[in-house]
Design brief:
heterodimer; A: 569 residues; alpha/beta; Rossmann fold; 3 domains; six-stranded mixed β-sheet; 23 helices; 20 strands; 21% strand; B: 2 domains; 70% helix
Chain lengths: 569, 279
């Protein structure tokens, strides 16, 4: 390529003033106009920092020491300012809800134009035109509360495209989106890339989801260095992903389990390009060898909901005829798109809201009259964001809080807190301030502070949201340990990997009703449920179909059984 | 979850009042408020009140939307009238300059026609201003409100802060509710049973997590705004600004006339801010 690079890092290093070590080391990277680049890497690898350097948040919002050079369109970024850079680089941040500054979609899209003093008429024309490009033009008057996750994302995208930028930078665009919306987001990004001839940079750790469409190059970042710069086929065939702690596509894992040699000849980078016709024999043989796990003895019902309905305003039912029977020691997931009633269900179980009709039973006993405080001793709920639960500066006090509210004698508190800290692997941090902990550790503190009350059932809302593969595994393995100790666990989640890997049973809510209550392998291969609940077919099923395996659902189940066995769950 | 919580519950209706620009409504509101605040002539005040009720009917505001507000105001102004009678029963006499006793009461608390008129006038003053305020809030798109503020001279950063508050208020409300429920599950007692000192401490148990989770949000918002050029120029334009048309000029002229009329009545007819029918 003889073209001039649009972004060029030359021996570039960056160190935040608040950090002892540089976050980026000696980066050399050229990105050419019209390329589509994916940047992957575990949390803390510096991939977001690299993005901040490109869009100008570094050095204009986050200060630090820069070495080497970074040119965009041939000009040193340090000689520009963040406003000038924003004309070239449009950034879509993760969390399309939080960055939605306008009161309506139209206003949000217009934000950059308003700041540019674009006259009223021209601004409206431009907004309409860009809104049409991302197909949000009929929702311009809606407020963020009326827009779905996908529509908010389209709005964010339109909001940076109004500037007619050359480079589009997406910082974890898939975080917080349900699987189907995430898939659409990747399609929109791809369409924009193809039709509008933009340079596209995507920073994301959910590799398989991004590889739903083609990318030109994938950069792997680890500890502040670019350790690989490959196309999808070569990267997936290598062992770089496993060594860096990034999840490889699920179908690739299956191929490896089955003893298939994964190399660039079978084009494994995308499920769509995979040459699967020669794989039938190996996959079938592998599948045949896997023994189903032994039947678990049937356990008593711990929690049941019988014909439960609920509405907030007395008009629109948020939950309708809910019937669920949960056995002691189960670990199950509750899935469905935003607004389907998942959080409301958890609120009913915790007693934050009371069912209008129907009964909720704990070991057969109606718990309608138990107060919120009493319920917490049988059913504990952990919010998604640990910062929303932590109110004490020290770990010990935070965990002890619930017991102190209950006037438990201090010596008993100490005993119970110590025990819980041990279970949660927090004993070494007992006298630490919470502010010194990582996200995953904070999450454990919040779980510990609920567990200390001795609930038999734990409800967790998106326990692994925004976590890379390593932290995800850490949190989930911890929950598996708890589950083995006898705690029944209900997970509210969008994450299909989590469903497949950790929860044998999935309950799917769609528009206030349960539409499926069955094995995760069935849910993620049932087209009807997938459509209704905004899920996405698992690539394992696609693989089975491509390889000519007749019962795809059974193949997925076999994969799950195999994983459970080798991971000893 | 009640996702439709909107501050001031602005409805997107299409009435002549909704069609006026936010700036027009703000200017009219200010003129009419000044008029009512200046004058102590009950005839004028009743006229303005009648006028604002008519406007309310035109803009299709339902009584149920404003019932609670009216109730609070009623309680407030009645208490106010009683208390001011108790503390300065001669206020009306002093201001109006005459004294006609209706009912002699013990102490200095004679009930006079003047005091009665003064109190009633004050009550109606509030009741003619409040509907105007409600009217403004319920018929103005909140973001247009920000652009109106900017156009009457408030710096756009301050005006935008208003808009941002409106944008994120429901989010904060939702966070607050989630946090409060989670803390109650841990045993936090928010009921009146707890002692006052405890209740203050307990409130902190909600406020601290709320602040910490909001800090993350603030960082995100300020980055998002920086990246899209907020604060770049000395001025900015507004997507929601409405062009002035004939309707707006008419509305402003009408309110200016009412304002001038009120002042004229005081100057030329009453020769004071107060109207005294008793001399």
């Amino acid at each position: 390529m003889s073209k001039q690079a649009i972004i060029e890092f030359n021996n570039f290093s960056f160190q935040y003033y608040s950090q002892a070590e540089p976050t980026l080391h000696n980066i050399n990277l050229s990105i050419y106009p019209g390329e589509k680049i994916l940047i992957v890497g575990p949390s803390g690898s510096g991939k977001s920092t690299l993005g901040y350097c490109i869009n100008g948040l570094i050095p204009f919002a986050y200060k630090g020491e820069m070495k080497g050079s970074l040119c965009i369109k041939g000009e040193e970024t340090t000689k520009k300012n963040i406003f000038e850079l924003s004309k070239w680089v449009g950034t879509v941040l993760q969390d399309s809800d939080g960055q939605f500054v306008g009161l309506t979609a139209g206003e949000d899209i217009a934000f950059a134009l308003e700041n540019d003093n674009v006259p009223y008429k021209k601004m409206h024309q431009r907004v309409t035109k860009v809104a049409e490009m991302v197909d949000i033009d009929s929702q311009l008057d809606l407020s963020p509360f009326e827009l779905s996750g996908g529509q908010k994302q389209r709005t964010s995208l339109a909001g940076v495209m109004v500037n007619d930028v050359d480079i589009l930078l997406f910082d974890e665009p898939l975080a917080n989106l349900d699987p189907a919306t995430g898939k659409t987001a990747i399609e929109i990004i791809d369409d924009i890339h193809n039709n509008a001839a933009k340079t596209v940079i995507i920073i994301e750790h959910r590799l398989e989801d991004v590889l739903h469409r083609h990318v030109d190059r994938i950069l792997v970042i680890r500890e502040g260095r670019i350790i690989a710069d490959l196309n999808a086929h070569d990267l997936v065939s290598s062992d770089i992903l496993i060594n860096t702690g990034i999840r490889e596509p699920l179908y690739v894992t299956a191929l490896k389990y089955a003893g298939v040699e994964v190399n660039s000849e079978i084009q494994p980078g995308y499920i769509t390009t995979l040459k699967a016709n020669g794989l039938h024999k190996e996959l079938t043989e592998w599948q045949a060898k896997i023994q189903p796990p032994p039947e678990k003895p049937s356990r008593p019902t711990i929690l049941s909901m019988e014909d439960v309905s609920f509405s907030y305003d007395g008009v629109r039912l948020v939950l309708e005829d809910i019937n669920i029977d949960i056995r002691e020691g189960e670990m199950l997931s509750l899935v469905g798109k935003n607004g389907a009633g998942k959080s409301t269900l958890s609120k009913l179980l915790c007693g934050f809201e009371k069912e209008d009709t129907g009964v909720i039973r704990f070991y057969g006993e109606d718990i309608k009259d138990k107060t919120i405080k009493e319920r917490a001793e049988i059913i504990g709920a952990v919010l998604q964001n640990p910062n929303q639960m932590i109110s004490k500066p020290m770990i010990y006090d935070e965990v002890a809080l619930g017991l102190r509210f209950r006037d438990v004698p201090e010596n008993e508190i100490e005993e119970r807190v110590e025990k819980v800290l041990k279970i949660c692997g927090l004993t070494p941090f007992k006298s630490w301030p919470i502010s010194a902990l990582s996200y995953g550790q904070k999450k454990r503190v919040t779980i510990a502070s609920i567990l200390v009350l001795g609930p038999k059932i734990l409800i967790l809302d998106e326990p692994t949201a925004g976590q890379d593969f390593r932290h995800y595994t850490e949190i989930m393995e911890f929950l598996v340990e708890l589950n083995k100790m006898g705690v029944t666990i209900i997970l509210i989640t969008h994450d299909m990997h989590l469903m497949l890997e950790y929860t044998p049973r999935a309950i799917v809510l769609v528009e206030s009703r349960i539409v499926a209550d069955t094995a995760a392998s069935v849910v993620l291969t049932d087209d009807r449920v997938i459509q209704k609940a905004n899920l996405k077919e698992t690539s394992l099923y696609t693989l089975a179909q491509m390889a000519g395996i007749p019962d795809g659902t059974r193949f997925v189940q076999k994969f799950i059984d195999y994983e459970r066995r080798i991971k000893n769950r | 979850m009640n996702n439709k919580i909107k501050l001031f519950s602005y409805d997107r209706l299409n009435t002549p009042i909704h069609r006026l620009s936010g700036l027009t409504k703000l200017i009219c509101f200010l003129f009419l408020t000044f008029a009512v605040m200046y004058s102590y002539d009950i005839r004028v005040i009743l006229l303005v009140m009648a006028f604002s009720i008519v406007i309310m009917i035109i803009s299709k505001i339902k009584f149920s939307q404003i019932r609670l507000m009216i109730l609070y105001v009623l309680i407030f102004v009645l208490t106010n009238a009683v208390i001011s009678f108790l503390f300065s029963p001669e206020m009306g006499v002093e201001l109006l300059g005459s004294r006609h006793v209706i009912a002699p009461l013990p102490g200095k608390h004679d009930l006079t026609q003047e005091q009665l008129l003064y109190s009633i006038t004050k009550i109606f003053k509030y009741f003619s201003v409040i509907p105007l305020g409600i009217l403004f809030l319920l018929t103005t798109n909140p973001s247009e409100f920000a652009s109106s503020l900017n156009r009457i001279g408030v710096h756009y950063k301050a005006a935008y802060a208003v808009s941002l508050t409106l944008r994120y208020f429901p989010d904060m409300q939702r966070d607050y509710r989630d946090i409060s429920q989670a803390q109650q599950a841990r045993g936090l007692d928010l009921s009146r049973k707890a002692k006052l000192a405890h209740r203050f401490k307990n409130a902190l148990m909600i406020v601290i997590p709320l602040i910490f989770s909001s800090l993350d949000r603030i960082e995100l918002i300020s980055n998002a705004m920086d990246l899209r050029g907020f604060g770049k120029g000395k001025t900015r334009t507004w997507y929601t600004a409405r062009k002035f048309n004939r309707r707006d000029y008419i509305a402003i002229v009408v309110s200016v006339l009412i304002f001038l009329g009120t002042i004229s009545v005081s100057i030329f007819i009453n020769h004071s801010r107060f109207y005294n029918p008793f001399i």
